[in-house]
Specification:
The complex is a heterodimer of chains A (124) and B (195).
Chain A (H helix, E strand, L loop, with lengths): L2 H12 L5 H21 L20 H7 L2 H20 L2 H10 L3 H6 L6 H5 L3
Chain B lengths: L2 H4 L4 H9 L5 H21 L2 H18 L10 H23 L15 H4 L4 H13 L3 H12 L4 H8 L3 H20 L11
């Protein structure tokens, strides 16, 4: 081994060693970056929340529960009010429709829902 | 994972464990990689304070790259030496632009007092080696430090300096010859017998 090789070997042994302050700085950097890395990591998609049916509260809550919620109750009430209005007003066009659907003697004779069907059904 | 169990784990696996949140991985990696990075930077820059900044910055970059690290593609140690080499080169260029010389880089007196020569100790030999290293061009210095002080193989140095293996062989050979030439005149001052 030459003197230079010996110097190299000694340099490896006697080289600067990390101070406590430097190691603390490096570890602080590592901890800070690790937190950022873990925060930035993609997370699994959230699981859908289970369906929870909560009883309606307030006055009339029992009625809403009976019909299956406020929406269903509103629909039933709207249909009821519409029926009352139609029954009270009795629009002209509605009476024709009623006459068609009501089985009376005059109308049933003239109503041909499927003209020509008799010819197909007739046996020779 | 317990620290004892991690002792046998490779650097690249440790880096992945660090990215996955293992609390012990960073300290183990630091224990393995910081001394070499600091030695490398100190020998190339000749300034302890600057070398500490470079080593800290290099490791900071390693922590940041950890989530994207792919096991088996590169070794953290080699990657870190490359970052240190580039950071040192940047600082040396900045020094040249400013025209400044750090205190540690100031050359030693050419003619030591004769009575002191017999009392040469390791520290003075190291100072002489450091002064000689700083007289080399940047790339030669990096190659010599990595080869003869850090003990890297020529292919590893080629990866660090991003040059071919033949270029590494040439740089280390020329660097070593230059060092021998610089130090040959100080043999007796360094406590070596003249041959």
């Amino acid at each position: 081994m030459t003197e230079l090789d010996e110097l190299f070997a000694r340099s490896r042994d006697l080289g600067p060693r990390p101070s406590g302050d430097l190691m603390a700085r490096v570890l602080a950097d590592a901890a800070q970056v690790q937190v950022q890395v873990l925060r930035a990591a993609p997370r699994p998609p959230p699981r859908p929340e289970p369906l929870v049916i909560r009883p309606a509260t307030g006055p009339g809550g029992w009625l809403m529960d009976l019909f299956g919620g406020a929406g269903a109750l509103a629909g039933v009430l709207t249909a009821g009010v519409a029926g009352l209005v139609l029954g009270y007003v009795q629009p002209v066009g509605l009476s024709y429709l009623g006459a068609l659907l009501t089985p009376s003697a005059t109308v049933s004779q003239s109503l041909e829902l499927m003209p020509g069907l008799d010819a197909l059904l007739t046996e020779e | 994972m317990a620290r004892d169990n991690l002792a046998e784990v490779g650097d690249d696996a440790l880096l992945i464990l660090y990215a996955n949140g293992d609390p012990q991985a960073a300290r183990l990696l630091m224990d393995r990689l910081l001394p070499g990075s600091l030695r490398h930077a100190a020998r190339v820059l000749g300034d302890r304070s600057e070398a500490e900044d470079v080593a800290q910055e290099a490791l900071l970059r390693l922590w940041r790259v950890a989530p994207d690290w792919r096991q088996g593609e590169a070794q953290p140690k080699t990657w870190l030496y490359r970052v240190v080499a580039n950071l040192c080169t940047d600082r040396l260029r900045a020094r040249q632009r400013r025209g400044t010389t750090p205190l540690d880089e100031a050359p030693d007196p050419e003619d030591p007092v004769p009575g002191v020569q017999a009392l040469m100790i390791d520290g003075e030999r190291m100072a002489a080696l450091q002064a000689a290293l700083l007289a080399l061009p940047d790339r030669q210095r990096q190659a010599v430090v990595l080869r003869h002080i850090e003990g890297l193989t020529n292919p590893e140095i080629a990866g660090v300096l991003e040059i071919g293996v033949e270029a590494v062989e040439s740089l280390t050979a020329r660097g070593k010859r230059a060092l021998q030439a610089i130090l040959s005149g100080q043999k007796s001052a360094l406590g070596y017998e003249e041959v």
